[in-house]
Amino acid sequence: MKRIISLVAIVGMLAVGVQAFGFGMPSLGGGDKKESGAKVDVDGLTGREVSLKLKVNAATISLAKGLAEIQRACGKAAEAEKLEGAIANAQANPKDIESTKKLVVDANNACEAINKYNLDATMNKDVARKSMGKSLLNLGAATLVDTSSVNDAKGLITDISAGLKSVQASPMTYGPSAVTNLTSALNTANLSLRRFPHK
Questions:
Q1: Which own/partner pairs from 14-20 qualify as long-range (CB within 8 Å, at least 24 positions apart)?
Q2: Mean pLDDT in the chain?
């Protein structure tokens, strides 16, 4: 019975922590229909790209932190420190999609290694109690932010696709870099749906 109560308490704390983390993230929305002939908000769309990069970065960092705690619980401190180094790099450059991509690769490698661990032989029960709670919180936060970023990416793809033709047809109205900026934002949104692991 004590285990069930402990599990319910952990799940409750996880839900509150995850919701608090998720509600602090900016909402990107998507799908606001523009009236025919309305000017495309290039700055608004490229601003949403930056917000999407930050969300994907935050979700990936939370996932990697959760994996590092699992590694630590399994007595793999060196591997956990290596992953934490990649986390620090991604935290230092949250708008840099390349550092987030590298962290995704490192997190995928860590996940594959964890799947091969003999948990009964490698897990230190005392360390595991502390690390697994932190891991659950981080993995829960990663899931929440990732779900939000997927929805934001879909909305951004829809909105950019709807406005890109207008921008391409009127380069003098929108400026010389508008097409490049929108194409970059579209690529980021597509990349976040295709490449990054959805927890």
A1: 14/136, 14/137, 14/140, 15/140, 17/137, 17/140, 17/141, 18/137, 18/140, 18/141, 18/143, 18/144, 19/144
A2: 79
